[in-house]
Structures are given as structure tokens and as C-alpha cells.
Amino acid sequence: MFKISLFICFTSLLLLSCDTNKRITTDFNCDIKTSGILENVTDVKELFSIKIPVNWKTNLYQDEIQSSIFSADTTKQLSETVLLDVTFIEKNVNFNEAFKLKQAQENLSKNLITIKSKELLLLNKPAYYMLLKGKKGKFSYQVCNTFIKVNSSNFILAKTEVYGDSLVNSRLCKSFSLIENIKILQ
């Protein structure tokens, strides 16, 4: 009986810890979900979809190697909104030291400072995010680049930008709740 109880406790603990590793919202202590009516938006190449609030302005883009959905709540001031750009890129990505060094160099060239970065599982896929802070024009801003390895030939880059200093974590969390519900269609 003791062995069964121990097994159940261990299994429950393991399942809870695995679930935590799959959610970027956990790292940011998010308790905010995007509210309102959501619409399902599919990229032009029909590789992925994401649910976006219906009142957000959304643009689609594609070229030979990528397909994007860019969306933002344009009813709000730039310093109160979220800019979300989700791009499916037909290229391999590996989260090795060379990749991380290249990202760090690119970010430094843009005068961005890394606040936090982490490898995790997202959409049941290997992922890596970097939260960066910088300045664009007169605004301070934070950008979170989230790379999700879809397979050996493709990845998704979900980029969230928030400008200003008001409710930054809350706005990031709204975006993360959308990113965590991306559907890969291929």
C-alpha cells in the first residue's frame, strides 16, 4: 500500500512539474488571459492558426520561406497595447550555444539588454524565449522573442512587443496566453 501511495505522489509531482515547463506564462507569474471575443486567424500558407481578439487589427504576410500573422489592438495608445507577430519560418533551428551567441550579438547590435531567457517546452515542442529591454524613439520597450521548433525543417518565431512602462507584465501575459494556443496545421 505504501509503494502505491508513493508511486501516485511521485507521478502526480512529475506531471505537475512537466506541465509547468510547458507554459511560458508560469515564468512571468501570469494570471491574466486575453478576454473578449476571439477569432481564429490562419496564415496565408495555412501552416498555423492563432486566436486573436476580433477588435485587433491583423495583417498577413508571406514570402518564399515564411508566413506571418501580425496583430495589435489599434484602439489603444502604443504605450498601452501589445504588438504580436507570429511567423512560421521554413528553416531549421537548434537552441545550441552558436544560436544563443548569434541572438545575443544581434540583440546587442540593436542596443537590447537581455532580461531573461530560457529553454522550455511550448506547444509540446522545444522552445526558447528571450525577454529583452531597449528603447525605440522616445519609448522604452520590451520585446520577447519566442522560438518554437516545429520540426527539423521549420520553426515559429512569436515576437511580442510592448512599449512604455505601464502594465508591461500584464500586456506580455496577454500575448503569451495567445501564443500558448497556436495551432500547427501541417
Keywords:
3-stranded antiparallel beta sheet; 26% helix; 7-stranded antiparallel beta sheet; 4 helices; alpha+beta; 42% strand
* Rounded radius of gyration (Å): 18 Å
Low-confidence blocks of residues: 2-21
Question: Which percent range describes the beta-strand content?
Answer: 35-45%
The CATH level-2 architecture is identified as 3-Layer(aba) Sandwich
- Give the spatial strand order of the biggest sheet: 3-4-5-9-8-7-6
Helix/strand-derived category reads: alpha+beta
How many independent structural domains?
Answer: 1
Q: Would you tell me which CATH topology applies?
A: Protein Transport Mog1p, Chain A
Q: What is the helix/strand order? A: HHEEEEEHEEEEHE
Quick one: CATH superfamily?
Mog1/PsbP, alpha/beta/alpha sandwich
**Helical region count?**
4
Amino- and carboxy-terminal Cα gap:
46 Å
Average pLDDT score: 88
Number of strands: 10
Q: What's the story with the biggest beta sheet? A: 7 strands, antiparallel
Instruction: Report the oligomer.
Output: single chain
Outline, from the CA principal axes?
A: globular
Helix content: 25-40%
According to CATH, what is the class? Answer: Alpha Beta
Structure description:
This protein is an alpha+beta fold. It has one domain: Mog1/PsbP, alpha/beta/alpha sandwich (Protein Transport Mog1p, Chain A, 3-Layer(aba) Sandwich), CATH 3.40.1000.10. Helix content is 26%, strand content 42%. The protein contains 4 helices and 10 strands. The protein has helices at 2-21, 24-27, 97-109, 168-179, and strands at residues 38-42, 48-53, 57-62, 66-72, 83-89, 113-122, 125-136, 139-151, 154-163, 183-184. The strands form 2 sheets. A 7-stranded antiparallel sheet has the order 3-4-5-9-8-7-6, sandwiched between helices. Strand 3 (57-62) and strand 4 form a beta hairpin. It starts with a helix and ends with a strand. Mean pLDDT is 88; it is low at 2-21.
